[in-house]
Design a protein that fits this description.
By secondary structure, the protein is α/β, with parallel strands linked by helices. The chain has a domain of 200 residues: NAD(P)-binding Rossmann-like Domain (Rossmann fold), CATH 3.40.50. The protein is built from ten helices and 14 strands. The strands form four sheets. Strands 3-2-1-4-5-6-11 form a seven-stranded parallel β-sheet, with helices on both faces. α1 packs across α7 and α8 packs across α10. It is globular, with a radius of gyration of 19 Å. The mean pLDDT is 97. Bound molecules: uridine-5'-diphosphate-4-deoxy-4-fluoro-alpha-D-galactose.
């Protein structure tokens, strides 16, 4: 029978989608989240929830033992790139030091499988796009480095302890649950699609376009936007792969292998709402590469993953539906 999966950060954006994907697939789930950036409402009422810190080892180890946890999906962490530049020690603490404590608890309690939220930011500015998993990992910000250090810890730990892991390297995660059960709820978001749907609903008066002189077809930045529900589904399949072959660990890009420019994203939002957002040309953001696209042949070969929501209009439509839902909830 299926063992319980402990989801750290399960009240956050991606974690809450993983909780739904696991639950929909029949896995027992428990969530631990500090609620510093997560929301209690994002976790279904029938899922055991603990408000707490992943580095609180007595708390975590009690949870691992009482729920007979058979796998950890580790989403908890800090995710804002510019903030990581301004406050690197926060990122090395939240993402690296606390992950170390969690991994130690997993080893002590004999948890056999670990799935880690890693990022394309570990590649820095890749020399080749699409980027493969064996490309050099040279992060250009503390966020990427803090995640890369955790990947390194997992590799070293898996070599000597009875645990295997999957590091999933996310590209640009966007959209929301197609049934609008959860979505991205964080205030002050900086991600393009979130910003654009906020503007479309009148919560911002414009969207800045950060750079129009990149070496891309229309001059704006190109990214591999992946629907959060497809990403959540990949986590469930990664878990099944870890269980099927406990001797093997995985490092897999999560993207669709195609990209859209900033202008293409804004055009999609305008088309769907039938009302143009005000656009403002702005300078490049520090550290933004021109294009970041995944080579996803490894995940397609290793997992029976079938992307279902790769369509940009669908990603935007679901993001918009959740943004409206958030408005209704706040009324
Ligand atoms: N952009 C704008 N205007 C905005 C916001 C973004 O023009 O208001 C542009 C950016 O310059 C970039 C693209 O839209 O070209 C996407 O920017 P995001 O801020 O949405 O995402 P990033 O590509 O900068 O970073 C995201 C995550 C990181 C992760 C990275 C990996 O935020 O955590 O993807 O691909 F590491």
């Amino acid at each position: 029978d299926k063992p319980t999966v402990l989801v750290t950060g399960g009240a956050g954006y991606i974690g809450s989608h993983a909780v739904l994907a696991l639950r929909d697939a029949g896995w027992p789930v428990a969530v631990i989240d500090t609620l510093v950036t997560g929301f209690r409402f994002a976790v279904p009422d029938d899922v055991p929830f603990t408000q707490g810190d992943i580095a609180d080892q007595p708390l975590v180890e009690a949870l691992l033992r009482s729920h007979h946890v058979g796998a950890i999906m580790h989403f908890a962490g800090s995710v804002v790139v510019p903030e990581s530049v301004a406050d690197p020690l926060k990122y090395y603490h939240n993402n690296t030091v606390k992950s170390r404590a969690l991994i130690e608890s997993a080893v002590r309690c004999g948890v056999p499988h670990f799935i880690f939220s890693s990022t394309a930011a570990t590649y820095g500015t890749p020399e080749e796009s699409p980027v493969r998993e064996d490309a050099p990992q040279q992060p250009i910000n503390p966020y990427g480095m803090s995640k890369l250090m955790t990947e390194a810890m997992l590799a070293d730990v898996a070599a000597v302890h009875p645990i295997n892991y999957c590091a999933l390297r996310y590209f640009n995660v966007a959209g929301a649950d197609p049934q609008a059960r959860t979505g991205q709820s964080t205030a002050g978001a900086t991600h393009l699609i979130k910003v654009a749907v906020e503007a479309a609903l009148g919560k911002r008066d414009h969207v800045s376009i950060f750079g129009s002189d990149f070496d891309t077809p229309d001059g704006t930045g190109v990214r591999d936007y992946i629907h959060v529900s497809d990403l959540a589904a990949a986590h469930v399949l990664a878990l099944e792969a870890l269980i099927a072959d406990p001797a093997t660990s995985h490092r897999l890009n999560c993207g669709y292998g195609r990209g859209f420019s900033v202008l293409e994203v804004l055009d999609a939002v305008d088309r769907i709402t039938n009302r143009p957002i005000t656009r403002r040309m702005d300078g490049r953001r520090a550290g933004d590469p021109a294009a970041l696209i995944s080579d996803n042949s490894a995940i397609l070969a290793r997992l029976p993953w079938q992307p279902r929501h790769a369509d940009l209009d669908q990603i935007v439509t679901h993001a918009l539906a959740w943004e409206r839902r958030l408005d209704d909830m706040r009324k």
